[in-house]
Design brief:
Largest sheet: none
Strand content: under 5%
Number of helices: 12
Helix content: over 70%
Structural class: mainly alpha
Distance between the termini: 29 Å
Number of strands: 0
Number of domains: 1
Shape: globular
């Protein structure tokens, strides 16, 4: 029960970060918003690791994978923050939900896992769900929708690398290294895009880092009480606060096609999860 509560809390906090980012995107560059997400996360995580988990501050057994993981997540964050600056939170997150399907599609290549016909069918149906949301040929394709879709693709590879690291590195260490990689890289380019924030904007920028940190910490704590595979379906609950925030603060109401695509993608993801749990190929 503790695992479920902590996991749900994590997925409830992360959409607040997205809401802050969307609000700021009309006033500040996307790269500056991304910088805030990483900078303030590291500012919070580093003292926690130093004072409470200092014994786990050892160098990674797989540093190249850790750096690659950080690069991929940084790219995914930039794509997602850009997408929500233009399209609705619900539509962007729905398209990003293809991540578990990407994991299934590429796990034979990178994880050596077998994927049978039924799971390949589920991946194909899930991709069709993303096409329902975008509706190429019926609506003019925009970069924001493609960026959201690319977020899901990148996040899928991020999850694959996370699986490989889970057998060697501590999750908190992985979270810290990922934050340091992102903060370092984005800090190199941010001077060229920097716009002086107001006090209110500084508060929201700090809030992005705070809620990102709290959300991920809750997710990490949940893993102390249950396996990641058992908690995976709870990630889809993120869409609930996402839709509420989009409606209440940005007057965004998902259309029927977004809901249909979301239903198809979630159904495909849950089917894949069930197959993996039953160990049936």
């Amino acid at each position: 029960m503790k695992a479920i509560i902590f996991s749900l809390l994590g997925w409830m906090f992360l959409p607040i970060m997205d809401g802050f980012a969307k609000f700021l995107s009309s006033e500040l560059p996307i790269l500056q918003i991304t910088w805030a997400r990483y900078f303030f996360t590291v500012v919070i995580i580093l003292p926690i690791m130093f004072f409470f988990f200092n014994k786990q501050l050892v160098w990674s057994d797989k540093p190249k994978l850790q750096i690659l993981r950080g690069l991929i997540l940084l790219s995914a964050n930039i794509c997602f923050f850009y997408s929500i600056s233009i399209i609705s939170l619900a539509k962007a997150l729905t398209l990003a939900f293809i991540a578990p399907l990407i994991v299934t599609a590429f796990s034979p290549l990178f994880l050596g896992e077998k994927v049978g016909f039924r799971r390949w069918t589920a991946v194909t149906i899930g991709f069709i769900g993303s096409l329902v949301v975008i509706r190429p040929g019926f609506l003019e394709l925009n970069i924001a929708s493609l960026a959201a879709l690319f977020t899901g693709i990148l996040y899928g590879f991020y999850l694959i690398i996370t699986r490989k690291l889970s057998t060697s590195d501590n999750p908190l260490l992985t979270l810290l290294i990922t934050g340091l990689v992102g903060a370092t890289l984005i800090s190199l380019v941010i001077p060229f895009y920097w716009i002086k924030p107001s006090l209110n904007q500084w508060s929201l920028m700090a809030g992005i880092g705070v809620f990102a940190c709290i959300g991920h910490l809750f997710l990490i704590i949940s893993l102390k009480y249950a396996d990641a595979s058992k908690l995976a379906p709870l990630g889809y609950t993120e869409i609930i606060p996402n839709i509420i925030i989009g409606y209440y603060f940005f007057s965004e109401i998902p259309d029927k096609w977004t809901f249909l695509g979301l239903f198809i993608i979630i159904l495909s993801g849950l089917y894949i999860f069930k197959r993996e749990q039953s160990k049936i190929i």
